[in-house]
Each structure stands twice: as structure tokens, then as C-alpha cells.
Amino acid sequence: MAQTTAETSPQAQSPAPAARQPFRLRDGGRVDRSRLVSFRFDERELTGHPGDTLASALLANGVHLVGRSFKYHRPRGIVSAGAEEPNALVQVGRDPRTEPNIRATQLELFDGLSVSSQNRWPNLEFDVGGVNNLLSRFLPAGFYYKTFMWPAAAWETYEKAIRQAAGLGVSPSKRDPDAYDKTFAHCDLLVVGAGPTGLSAALTAARAGARVILAEQDFLLGGDLLSDRSAAIDGRPALEWLAEAEAELRSLDNVRILTRTICFAAFDHNFFGLHERVSDHLPFAERGDGRPRHRLWKLRTRQAIFATGAIERPLVFRDNDRPGIMLASAARSYLNRWGVMAGSNAVVFTGNESGYATALDLHQAGVRVAAVVDLRAEAEGPLSEEAKAAGLRILAGHAVIGTEGDKRVKKVRVGRLGSDGASIWGGGEEIACDLLVNSAGWSPTVHLHCQAKGSLVWDEAHACFLPDKAMQKGQATVGAAAGAFGLASCLAGGEAAGRAAAEALGLAPRAPARRLEAEDRDFLPMRQLYCVPSDKPLGQGGKHFIDQQNDVTAADLLLALREGYRSIEHVKRYTTTGMGTDQGKLGNVNAIGVVAEHLKLPLPEVGVTTFRAPYTPVSFGAFAGRDVDALLDPVRTTPMHSWHERNGALFEDVGQWRRAWYYPKEGEDLRRAVSREVKATRDSLGILDATTLGKIEIVGPDAAELLNRVYTNAWSKLEVGRCRYGLMLKEDGMVMDDGVTSRLDETRFLMTTTTGNAASVLAHLEEWLQTEWPELKVYLTSVTEQFATMTLSGPNARRLLGELCDLDLSNEAFPHMSWQPGRVAGVPARIFRISFTGELSYEINVPAGQGLYVWQTLFRHGEKYGITPYGTEAMHVLRAEKGFIIVGQETDGSVTPLDLSMDWIVSKKKDFIGRRSLSRTDIQKPDRAQLVGLLTQDPALVLPEGGALVETMREETPVPMLGHVTSSYWSPNCGRSIALALVKGGRGRLGKTVICALDGGKTAPCTVVEPLFFDKEGERLRG
Amino acid sequence: MLLIDCPHCGPRAELEFSYGHEAHIERPKDPDALSDSDWAAYLFLRENPKGVILERWVHSHGCRRWFNVARDTVSYEILAVYPMGAEPPKLEQARYV
Predict the structure, then answer these.
(1) What is the DSSP string of A254-296?
(2) Tell me, what DSSP letter sits at residue A550?
(3) Is residue A659 classed as helix, strand or coil in its secondary structure?
(4) Looking at CA atoms only, how far is residue A774 from chain B in angstroms?
(5) pLDDT given at position A4
(6) Cβ atoms A831, A873 nearer than 8 A
(7) pLDDT of residue A3
(8) Chain B residues 63-92 with a CB less than 8 Å from chain A
(9) Of chain B residues 18-47, which have a CB less than 8 A from chain A?
(10) Which residues neighbour A981 within 8 Å (Cβ) at sequence distance 6 or greater?
(11) How many C-beta neighbours within 10 Å does residue A970 have?
């Protein structure tokens, strides 16, 4: 089953603790060979060491085949050693803790880790989907767009099959059992990246006293120093400097080091998103204990330094995707940091000096280097010279023109490259190998700079984009991320940036005694080819992969261009290049290069696609943090909530409020319970918890004037002790809210709003007061939660209230639309005689803390009247019987008072918000949707709310819409169904028939009537 | 997320504020004097400059006070914060091609 057997391993003769890891060197690297870590990959039990990633451990065991590709199901291996990995994506853990698309190159090994490969069936070695590879000429770019367009209606059928075939991993089937956290943080300086540049910057600023946060995605500090066995700083091994730098940083109180933390997003004003993997590296038994799995850092800093390094760019050559083909720098990292040989017989393919660094290290470690294939006409440069001196076989002016090997590269074909870089001379030489490393150059990691809207400039010499101007203040990109590829430049650049940041913070950084000594080797000279030619035309006899994760080839890009796409953003979307979870970290510059060459444009004119957050995927859990379940959103309950619960109420959410919906008795469904509540209220006595209505106290000498300006009707003459209904519009003339406002004294009003609009009405009033009418002397205070409100409604309301308060409740002393202060059950109360049910009603406001007591007292005394609690549903029925609107149900932001036939409340004598809009021509049109009542011809049929209304039914579509049903109920008091509706020109249709479309093609004819169904004279209200 | 310097509470994160759109749009003194299209322009037409915009914010989850802000719509840099009713400060318009 293994691709490479122990017999072929040069380490086979040296059984050490790592005996089962045939490709592990005996020493070197940052792994602890004294301990074994067991893990499972698919069906195989393997071992690694602490310090390993899954990728390094797999390679130590000789495992290269780790997945199947997205579209063609081609066997794929490990390409990189970092965040840029396109192929080695695995499914980690078991349901429900399972997570797809985890990069093996960043997954820390731990005891008991269990991963499986993705996108293969039935298994990795034999994958049925591999047939797609054979059919690949029928699966070009834009295949889905072209194939599944017709007939349009069939898309729903296609979609199911396509979704089944798409995607790499599987989601958990149950909710995530882990805990996540979010936190805010503030600092003077954020340094992203703890390579030599970032460490140097952090040290400099921290020594000057800056509060520094240093974020590193890796679990070790050091960046590329960890992968470079020969690097030296001040004449000593660089790792010694690294240890000292880390120790110093850790000793400083003003420095916080966040490892395993990726800064995934740069937002405005130096606000950053960081994703910390807190416990993913621990064996499952050691997790928990209060620690979250991940933590989201929402960080604001005054200064930011992006020391994010650079990512090696792969060469695009024919069949460049086989397992065993990887970046030169990755092979070097595996060798030097993890002590792992990525193969035993290597070919190095390069267009610059970087490939030689790997060639030399491999050679020195005992890996056979079969050849160094160099695109450059001459192998020139310090490392090339070393390679020559070491006796390596160098094929300058050559290119790899093809590879072979199914589940592991077996050999490469090498041909002589024409001087134009576009042709190959001769049929080529075959060279056997089990490892092919390649390097086209380096791409600075400019993502944060670009997310923060910084601009880029093209560096032709290094063939890469460099950060140009930062858009936001206090941001600097330095080191390799800014095109300084040598170690000395990185150290100096970091030092300078740290100093500049400290100075910008008003600190006085000490001058260093001297500069740190280090080599300053670049990877130049280089020869850049975005697409390495082969001996056959592009797209024939093999594939030049640009984006391995999404299986996009150079031929796909050219097809998109032939089909007329020009903008790189369009080419990207059409071919999906750069749209995988790796976001094209490896492929994007190559894609731009291929497009530029084909269009014969300078590369910077083609430009880059937009850099968007996140840099690497962030778990949903981290964004949610602890804000789940009960903490997702606050739940507001009234002082009487416990009573509702004890008495079997079912609840509905109205905004954040939890309101009693209805109180079913044994065996009652919604309709029977609501009918009972409605009937009891009209026949004797009902009680509603109305606490949630918004209450705003409006105080000041200009309070009445404010009401004049925000309500459609007049308020100046409202006497103290009286109440008035008001309708509030937005300036566009549309109904925004309604409610009753009462004059408490000369300069004090109490406004009520609908439950859901309390906050927005207060904000609306504040906005006008503060921004347009600062001269008005008025204060606004929300008092919604200060009062418990209960509404007694029904013919016996006066009798019950009379028993519990000493006010004269007669019509003369206490008329409809007035209020009085008094005591109810001994508790100070404001009693409002207002009605939303059409019955004799009293709304009793008492201090919230005494609400439950008063409520219970009312029940004790109300038993003899059969006092019945009613919920929001019965309230809706009661008001609908009277044709009272509910803002947000009868209105939807496009309804004026005229549409509601509420002209009676619109003053002609004064200006108010929205008045001018009501005289606009469009608002005056007679065919606007107007509020009417509907009576179904079948009185038992209750229309669906939202039901579409039409004039006539006919075969051809579309049938012109007349409007829709806004409210619809069974009315026990009318003995039939009733409905309210918005109907085009509805007022002119009274007595006529409209048709409501029902499910299943059925229809319901209805008669248009006045929107008033019960007690049309309003006698009960005033009774 | 912007960092907005509330004149009453100091610099606070954007999520505490609500946006109030373009500033210095005065409600017409005599709405009836306006044609329908002029009224519609007052209601709906707003500037969308590439550069400095004068806009209103309210510290809705703080002091609930309104104030004006001058902000560059490209860099998002806040160039000035000034009270309601005050004249906008003299600012050099950022130039963008």
C-alpha cells in the first residue's frame, strides 16, 4: 500500500527510535525524537514526533499521496510547508468534531490525531472519480455554466448532483460541541510574523517601551530561520540569536506573543482580526478545562508592522501536480526543520538561486540529487557556484517538459529550452526521481497591506508585486514581504520599522550599538517563465496546473481569453483560479503572468484580483464565540412572565421580547384557545400583559410642539389628563409607527409605541431634536421597562377595577381617551382609559417591581367575572374585528395614511414630518394599494396571510396582482372568517369580488368590504 | 471597523455608532414651496464623492448624541469631528483620479 518501501530508504540500515519513520534523519531539526506520537491517516497507524506537522510526519513515513484533486480526482501530494498549501487538505477528527479542508502542513501532530483524505471514493488508492481525469477534455473551464444552462427549469435537478460531487470534505452532522471565545485587545504595535524581520521589529519597539503584540501563525517563532541550517547572525548560528530574541521578548511585560495565531484580516483604522488556535494541538484528553478551542482577537493598534514574509512560487510545467512534486523551499523546510527527506532521488527544477539552496542541503543530507534543471541560460550566482563545486549535475538552459508516475513522480523528461523561452529543442532526456522540487521565484505576502487598501508596484527584476503606498496611517510592510529577501536586509528592515513605529508612538528608541551581521543573499539572478513550454502544444498530452486546488490549468486560462474574457477578475471567476480555500497563494501571480503574456500586456496592467479577508479560513465557531443559544440575543421578559409560564402560555418573540401568545387549556389548539379568549373578553373580561409597548416620556416646555411636528395630528390643545392616538410618518410620507400619547402635565407627555419600534421611534425623535430642531426644549427618556402594563378589557372591566381602586370610574368622571393617577390594589398607578379591542378598556401602569402583585390581585378579584388572560393572537383578532391596523402588518414602509383611509388624522393646518410627501403626484394616485376588509364567500375559510389577490384567474401568466392579505383570522364574535388586505384601488372596489390564490391551484373569491367587522358604531367602547 | 472620536465619550469603535448619512441637508423651511422633484431631491439625492464627505453619526450605544464627521471615502480617514449646527472645517480635498 505504501508508495515507498523501507528497502529503498537510505535510513533503513539505522534503526533508531524513529525506526518506523524511514525518511527521518537521525538528527537535526526541531522535533523531539525521544518521544513518539501516534496518529492515524485513513486506515494506517503511523508515528511522528512532537514538533511535527501532519505533513512532516507523513513525509517521514514516506507518504506522499494525500488526496484527490477537486475536479479530475488526480492523485495529489504535499506541495508546501505552510499556509499556501493547495493539495494536502484533510478531514480531521470524528463527527461531530470533524472538520474538513485542514492544511496538513499547518496541522500540529498530537497523540490520537485521526485524519482522513478527502475527495476519494471508495479509497485514496483507488478512486472511482478518477474517471473525470480521462474525461477531462470534456470538462473545460466554464463547464457548468455551459452545460447546465438549458433547460433553465432543470437546474434544480442538476444542482443536486453537482453539489453532491462538489466540495472536498464533509461537514459535521451535529452541532459543534466545542467552546469558542472572542476578545478585544488594544496595543501600541502589532507585529504580524515572527521571522527575523518581525522579531527584530518587535524587539526594537518593545525595548523602547511600546506595548507590542507579536502574532505568529506557526507554533514556533523564527519563520524561515527554522528552515535554514546555514544561516548565521553575528557569526553564530541564527537559531542561537532566535532563542535569545524569543527569551528577551518573553521576559518583557509589555510584549504579548501569540503563537498559532493568524492575523487573517486588516480592517479600517488599524483594526485587525486574529484567529488563535488555542487547543487544536492538544490530545483530546487534555482539552477543555475552560480553555476554548479557538479564540477570535479583535485588535485595535496604533501602529502595525506586516513582517509576513514571502511564499515561493511554483513553476508551471506539464503535469506539475504529481505527488512528490513540491516547492524547493518546502523540501528544504522538511529537511532542516523536521529532519525529513521528502525523497531519496531528487531533481531540482529552478529559474533562480533558491533551487540551489535546496539542492545543496539535500545533497549534504545524503539525498541523491540527480540533476538541477535550470531555466537560466547559465547557472550563475553564489549558490550555483557552490553546486558546481559540489559536483552536482546542472542542466542550464533546460526545462522539465513532462513528468511520469501515477501516485508518485517516477521520472521527469528534460528538454533544451529555446532562447525565447517558448519552445523546446529535441525530445528530451528522461531522469528517474522520486522527488521533484521547483522554484519560480518568490511572492511577497502582501495580503494585509492590500486588504488595508494599500497599493502594489511591480518589481520586474524579482518578478513580483511589492507593497507601494499604505492607504492607512501607521502601517508598514517590511522584510521579504516588502521584497527584502536577504537575511541582513530583513533584520535591518525590521529594526528600522520597529524604530519608526516607536518614534511615531512618541517613544525614544535606543540606537543599536551596531547592525547585526548576516549574509544578504537574494535569489537573483532569475529567469521568469510563467508557463514552461513542453514538446507538445499547451493542453495536449498533459496538464499545466496553475491552481492545483481548483484544478485550473494554463489551457483553461487561455480558453477563457479566447472566449473573450479580459479582466483578470472575470478570468478568475470563469475559470475559478484562485478561488479555493488557499485563495491562490501559489497560483495567482502565475495566472496573471499567463494572461499578460497571452494578451501581450505588461503584467502590472493586467493587475491583481482583490485581496479579501480571511487570509486563511477561520472557523465559524470563532466568530460566534460564546454568543450562542441563550446568549445569542438578549431575551426581554415582563414582570409577569413567570405567571404566564405557570399558566401554560405559549410564547412568541416580538423583537427581543418574549410575549404570551395564547394560553391553551387541556386539548385546545390555537384556534380554539384564541376563540375562547376572544369570546371571554367581549362577553365579560379579558386581561392582557401590555408591558412590552414602548413608552417614552417627553418632557419640556416644547414637548407639545415636538409632538405637533412628528405626528400627523395636532397636540397643542390636548388637555392634561387626556389621551390621543397619533400616527407617525417618515419624511417620505410612509407610516412609521402609531400609538396613544397622554398629557401627564403641562410639560410632560407619555408616548406609547408599538412593541417592535420602541427603540427606533426614540432614535427618530432624538435625531430630529438634535439635528434639525436644537431650539426645542425637550428631553426624551425611555421608560418602557420602568412600568408593568396590564389591560383590562370587556364589559366587566369597570366593575373589577372599581373594586380595587377608589377612583370614580363613571363615563362622566373618567371618559374614554383620558387617564388618571390613582392606586390599584394599593399600588400607585397610572390608569389610561384607552382601547385596542373596541371594548371598555383600562390600561393600568404600575411600577415594574409590583406588576406581578397587581396582576395576581386582579386575577383573585376577577375570578367571579371569569377573568381570562389573552395573548397576542387574541389581541390581533380583537383589533382586526374593529379594523385597527398594526404597523408592520397592515403597513410595510410603502403605505401612507391616505392608503389606510386615515385622512381624518392628518392635519391640514400644520406642517409635520412627511406632510409634503403626501401631496406628491404618485402618492395621490387612485390605484395605490389601499386598506380594505375582505369577506370570503365561504365564511368558514380563513385566508392565508400574505395570500396574493387577483381580479380574475386566467391561464396565461403573469396574472396581474391586485394586492395581498395583511391580516386574516377566524372571528368568533362575527361567527365567520375576516381579513384585512391592501388592494389596488381598494376603496373603489367595495362590494366587488377579488380572488385570493390558495395552495394547490385553488382559489377563494372574496367580497371587498369596509375594514370594520364588529360593533360598527363603537358603542361598546364608550359604554 | 472605524475608530470614531465621539466628542462626548472619546474614541470608540464603530459598532457603538449609527450612521446618519450626508450632513448639512437642511429641512426646507417651507416644503410647499418646493416642486415634487425638488422635494424628492431633498428626500433622496445624496452626494457620493470619492474623497472627503461630510456626514452625520450618532453614538447610539453610548451618549446618544449626534455629531458631524468629515471622512475620506477612499482612505476612510476621519479628518474632523464637529458639532451639529457648526460650519464644516476648512479641509483640503483629497484628490483622487
Answers:
(1) TEEEE-SEEEEEE-GGGEEEEEEESSTTS-GGG--TT--SEEE
(2) T
(3) strand
(4) 9
(5) 40
(6) no
(7) 42
(8) 64-66, 74-78, 84-85
(9) 18, 20, 26-28, 31-32, 34, 36, 39-40, 43
(10) A931, A932, A933, A934, A949, A963, A964, A965, A966, A994
(11) 20
C-alpha cell at A390: 559540489
Angle between helices A670-683 and A872-881 (to 10 degrees): 60
What are the φ/ψ torsions at residue A132 (nearest 5 degrees)?
-60, -35
Task: Classify strands A748-753 and B52-58 as parallel, antiparallel or unpaired.
Answer: unpaired
Share of chain A above pLDDT 90, in %: 86
Cβ atoms A172, A283 nearer than 8 A: no
Number of other CB atoms surrounding residue A486 within 10 Å: 17
Closest CA to A690 of A880, A872, A888, A884: A872
Q: Residue A169: its pLDDT value, please?
A: 83
Does the residue B58 lie in any domain? yes
- Tell me, what amino acid is at A564? G
Do residues A102 and A274 make contact, with C-beta atoms less than 8 angstroms apart? no
C-alpha cell at A711: 405626528
Q: Does residue B53 contact residue B96 with C-beta atoms inside 8 Å?
A: no
Domains of chain A: 6-147 (3.10.20.440), 180-310+444-504 (3.50.50.60), 691-865 (3.30.1360.120), 925-1022 (2.40.30.110)
Contact B66 A453 (CB under 8 A): no
| Tens digits of residue pLDDT in B32-88 | 999 999 999 999 999 999 999 999 999 999 999 999 999 999 999 999 999 999 999
- What whole-number distance in Å separates Cα of residue B48 and Cα of residue B43? 15
State the Cα–Cα distance between residues A658 and A637, nearest whole angstrom: 6
Closest CA to A877 of A1013, A1018, A727, A740: A1013
What CATH number is attached to the domain comprising B68? 3.30.2270.10
Q: Is residue B55 part of a domain?
A: yes
The answer for residues whose C-beta is within 8 angstroms of residue A305's C-beta and 6 or more apart is: A189, A190, A191, A192, A198, A201, A475, A476, A477, A478, A494, A497, A498, A501
| pTM of the predicted model as reported, rounded to 2 decimal places | 0.92
Domain contains B91:
no
Total number of domains in chain B: 1
Chain B residues with CB-CB distance to A920 below 8 A: 36, 39-40
Residues A436-460 pLDDT 10s: 999 999 999 999 999 999 999 999 9
Instruction: Name the 3-class secondary structure at B79.
Output: strand
Distance of CA B18 to the CA centre of its chain: 11
Structural domain containing residue B22: 3-28+41-82
Instruction: Tell me the CA distances in angstroms from A149 to A156, A158, A159, A557, one per residue in order.
Output: 11, 10, 11, 21
Weakly modelled stretches of chain A, pLDDT under 70: 1-19, 137-138, 143-167
For cell 416644547, the residue is: A702
Q: How many Cβ atoms from other residues are within 10 Å of residue A251's Cβ?
A: 9
**Which of A732, A772, A920 minimises the CB distance to B36?**
A920
Looking at this protein, which amino acid is placed at residue A536? K
**Distance between CA atoms of A789 and A753, rounded to whole angstroms?**
13
Burial of residue A579 (CB within 10 Å: 0-12, 13-18, 19+) is middle
pLDDT of residue A1: 36
CA distance A759 to A117: 52
ipTM given for this complex: 0.97
**Closest approach of B87 to chain A, Cα-based (Å):** 13
The per-residue pLDDT for A53 is: 98
Q: Which cell numbers in the block locate residue A345?
A: 532521488
Provide φ and ψ at A558, rounded to 5°.
Answer: -65, -35
Q: Give the C-alpha separation, A996 to A1004, whole Å.
A: 5
Return all residues near B75 (Cβ < 8 A) that are at least 6 apart.
Answer: A453, A471, A472, B94
Please give the Cα distance from A240 to A237 (Å, whole number). Answer: 6
